[in-house]
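sanity check this:
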Amino acid sequence: MSTDFVMGIAVETIKVTLLVSAPMLLIGLAVGLAISIFQAVTQIQEMTLVFVPKIVAVLIALIVSLPWMLNIMISYTHNIFSNFSTYVR
């Protein structure tokens, strides 16, 4: 097992991790930005106003993108297990 091989597996793992986490992170960022703009416009400075809409939006994003995320994770896991004999050598 060469260092290029190990780095290839590490890069693929990082790509899968970023792809799987991106929908929730982007939705959380967008909702947080929208609520911050709303707070700045209305001058409401309540710190707890951000948390409930952000949690609900991330939960909805998780439910919507879950089949896609599972497909990516299953294909990655299948790739790892199907090439296991080349990893052990």
